[in-house]
Amino acid sequence: MNLKAFAGNSDKSRRHFMEGAAKSALGVSVATTFGAALDQQKAFAEEAAGGGKAMSLIYIFNSGGMTHLDTFDPKENNKKVMGDTETVSTKVPGIRYGSHLKGLAEHADKIAVINSMSSQNGAHAQARYQMMTGYNQRATIVHPHIGPFCEKFFGKRGDLLPDSVIVNRGTSNSGYLEPALSPLPVANPTAGIANSTIMTSQERFNQRMEMSLDIGQNFVDKYQHYSSPKGYIEFYDQASRLLSSEELKVFDLSGEKDRQKYGMNNLGQGCLLARRLVEKGVRVIEVHNGGWDMHSGIQDSLASRLPPFDQAVSALISDLDQRGLLESTLVVTGTDFGRTSRINERAGRDHQPAVFSTMFAGGGIAGGQKYGKSDADGRRVGENKVSVEDFHATIGYGLGVDLGYEIYSPSGRPFVFGNHGKPVTSLYA
Predict the structure, then answer these.
(1) What are the two backbone dihedrals, phi and then psi, of residue 170, each rounded to the nearest 5 degrees?
(2) What are the phi and psi torsion angles at 381 (to 5°)?
(3) Are strands 111-118 and 356-362 parallel, antiparallel or unpaired?
(4) What does the pLDDT profile of the chain (429 residues) look like in tens digits?
């Protein structure tokens, strides 16, 4: 039975369907998983038809609004703006980072920073949505993240591992695209894929699986005007095959020798998992990292949050480089927005969407550069404004996505990667 032929469109996550159906019918509970497993990433070079050389993307998202002034855009001689934050020289003359980024400073020759990001969204939910999708949030539609869009554009790479994975999140969906394109959510990278052990014999599991697929197929055949179950059936089949595969081991970090190097926390282990997934050919991995909404006590918060971030991302860049994967893997950091240059009465910084920073490395990026500038106080863009749409277009350009290629929602509305933004092509070598 060719279940792929029955894939449909739905904005509902397949995860909930899979978990409920598996528990009741199969004697197993699994998180969403399906996709492609290939051992050699370089086999996908033909996909990079655009500007960059990236065959995979690791997108580290610092939820809450990481301060640009204390990280990638310090105002070294402006004590009023900087407060107690010091700066550190980097491997690139003339470029300085906040003093907590000592590890990344040693990789500055591989890093390009955009210091002229700008958004009109100053509320967390709306800003986060746009930074993950490239589109403003609307009540009438749910836009896909980068992973599902790329899978729709390029096609699926293989049979078992997913094309995209979201780490440190418990749910996901594919937006207006088919449910089968939903990223696999890994809520805790240390725990791996929760409840993925078959709770009955393999024979009994296979019998229940076959019965469930038959029931599902009968429903689809009878009610062909319902599109959602078609995508769920496809996923159902793929997920069941993964349960018995060796590919699940990629999510088990227990025997990984590099765990300490990345840091024994969700971000560090998430970045380690991301590297392992890239080695297996997974196209897009999001790693979420919260705790950046620093309205009070920012110096203590920075001392707590920045060293683990610096350690994890530095280890990731170093590891990818040593394994010959950095050139083909685009590493990007993003956040909701920036934070104010004025330190408030609670010794914190408030929301500032007018200007903030993002970081790029690998994937054909020409390192050792800063693009754009904020003004002297870091309050607004000084030159070369980069919108959120431009940011996404820059990622798509590096991945080889045709930025004019239209994908249609079920209602017939056309969408493109990056929402017609203009890529910053000068970031690429």
Answers:
(1) -95, -10
(2) -70, 135
(3) antiparallel
(4) 333 333 333 333 333 334 333 333 333 333 333 333 334 444 433 433 456 789 999 999 999 999 999 999 999 999 999 999 999 999 999 999 999 999 999 999 999 999 999 999 999 999 999 999 999 999 999 999 999 999 999 999 878 899 999 999 999 999 999 988 999 999 999 998 865 554 455 566 456 556 655 655 665 565 555 555 555 556 556 656 666 678 899 999 999 999 999 999 999 999 999 999 999 999 999 999 999 999 999 999 999 999 999 999 999 999 999 999 999 999 999 999 999 999 999 999 999 999 999 999 999 999 999 999 999 999 999 999 999 999 999 999 999 999 999 999 999 999 999 999 999 999 998
Rg, Å, the chain Cα set: 22
- Taking the C-alpha atoms of residue 77 and residue 387, their distance in angstroms, rounded to an integer, is 27
- 24 burial type by CB count under 10 A (0-12 exposed, 13-18 middle, 19+ buried): exposed
